[in-house]
């Protein structure tokens, strides 16, 4: 779906490259998170895909088309783009913001209206309440949802996201990340996500590319990166607590056992992740939790040993 072949970006002939001979394949329908220390080239790499930044060398393909030879304006109309500060047009209503690209593509107004309602519903906002509002009348989380809706308006196959939840408070950010993950299951897009937050990369990425000095030092599934860092730099970057981070990749349902705890113990839902379940165990000073379904009925148990066996 997206392929970067030996891509280099230099700002000035004598300057060290910001991106250095980088090759990367992003499979169709997957989410790839680019992460690394400041200045490693992750944002430059992403912005070259839609040619907000022009590569110095190399080729970039999207859906088989060499985008370095495409009209950049037309290219960007077919690639969704979400940024940290949203970038909504302040003088336009929410309806007008979402309709911006479909209008440029010549969609008729009925089709645009239907698509706008559909997208607001997708991101969990009520069209009746939102359509006539302006960005200044929304919370940060609501603006970020509108940013996602606008990026999806023309139904692009590719979505680029640059620190999309970075300006949101931690509690809202985690909730939006989970909601966005569910949205991606419904709309199936190929996503390149730039983030400085490893937990976000683990939560959203099917694969993670860890970058350093313009190069990719490890590109793999989150579980593989946390279990088997490629070198000392990656091990240091993912942290000494990487085994704990890895537990967030698994749900309680993956480790629960049959039976009902004999004592009155704390409970956890089957859909919760094992990292949160272990935290609950520590807080409750217990080696076992009751596992409950959405209705609160006990359906099994989770032991500390079962968590550690994952």
Textual characterization of the structure:
It is a single chain. With 310 residues, the chain is of the alpha/beta class. Helix content is 38%, strand content 23%. It is built from 15 helices and 13 strands. It has helices at residues 42-49, 72-76, 94-98, 100-104, 109-122, 127-130, 140-152, 170-187, 198-204, 222-227, 232-238, 242-246, 252-255, 274-284, 304-308, and strands at residues 2-9, 19-26, 31-35, 57-62, 65-66, 79-83, 158-162, 190-194, 207-212, 215-220, 267-269, 288-292, 298-303. The strands form 3 sheets. Strands 6-7-8-3-9-10 form a 6-stranded mixed sheet, with helices on both faces. The chain has a 4-stranded antiparallel sheet with strand order 2-1-4-5, covered by helices on one side. It has a 3-stranded mixed sheet with strand order 11-12-13. A hairpin with a 5-residue loop joins strand 12 and strand 13. Helix 5 (109-122) packs across helix 7 (140-152). The longest helix is centred in the middle third of the chain and has 18 residues, at 170-187. It is globular and about 65 Å long. The model has no long low-confidence stretch (mean pLDDT 92).
Helices and strands in order:
Blueprint: E1 2-9, E2 19-26, E3 31-35, H1 42-49, E4 57-62, E5 65-66, H2 72-76, E6 79-83, H3 94-98, H4 100-104, H5 109-122, H6 127-130, H7 140-152, E7 158-162, H8 170-187, E8 190-194, H9 198-204, E9 207-212, E10 215-220, H10 222-227, H11 232-238, H12 242-246, H13 252-255, E11 267-269, H14 274-284, E12 288-292, E13 298-303, H15 304-308
Parallel strand pairs: 3-8, 3-9, 6-7, 7-8, 11-12
Antiparallel strand pairs: 1-2, 1-4, 4-5, 9-10, 12-13
């Amino acid at each position: 779906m997206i392929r970067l072949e030996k891509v280099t970006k230099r700002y000035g002939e004598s300057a060290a490259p910001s991106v250095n001979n980088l090759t990367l394949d992003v499979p169709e329908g997957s989410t790839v998170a680019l992460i690394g220390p400041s200045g490693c080239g992750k944002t430059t790499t992403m912005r070259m895909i839609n040619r907000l930044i022009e590569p110095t060398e190399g080729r970039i393909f999207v859906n088989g088309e060499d985008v370095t030879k495409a009209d950049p304006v037309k290219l960007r109309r077919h690639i969704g783009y979400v940024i940290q500060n949203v970038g909504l047009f302040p003088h336009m209503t929410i309806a007008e913001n979402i309709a911006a690209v479909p209008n440029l593509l010549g969609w008729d107004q009925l089709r645009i209206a239907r698509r706008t309602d559909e997208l607001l519903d997708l991101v969990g906002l009520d069209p009746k309440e939102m359509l006539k509002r302006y960005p200044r009348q929304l919370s940060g989380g609501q603006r970020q949802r509108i940013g996602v809706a606008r990026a999806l308006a023309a139904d692009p196959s590719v979505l680029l996201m640059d620190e999309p939840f970075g300006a949101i408070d931690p509690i809202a950010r985690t909730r939006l990340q989970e909601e966005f993950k569910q949205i991606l299951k419904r709309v199936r897009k190929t996503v390149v996500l730039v983030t400085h937050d490893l937990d976000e990369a683990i939560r959203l990425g099917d694969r993670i590319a860890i970058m350093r000095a313009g190069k990719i030092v490890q590109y793999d599934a989150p579980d593989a990166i946390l279990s088997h860092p490629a070198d000392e730099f990656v091990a240091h970057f993912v942290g000494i607590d990487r085994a704990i981070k890895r537990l967030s990749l698994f749900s309680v349902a993956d480790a629960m056992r049959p039976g009902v705890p004999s004592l009155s113990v704390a409970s956890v839902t089957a859909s919760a992740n094992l990292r949160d379940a272990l935290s609950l165990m520590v807080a409750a000073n217990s080696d076992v939790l009751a596992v409950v379904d959405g209705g609160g009925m006990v359906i099994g148990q989770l032991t500390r040993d079962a968590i550690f066996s994952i």
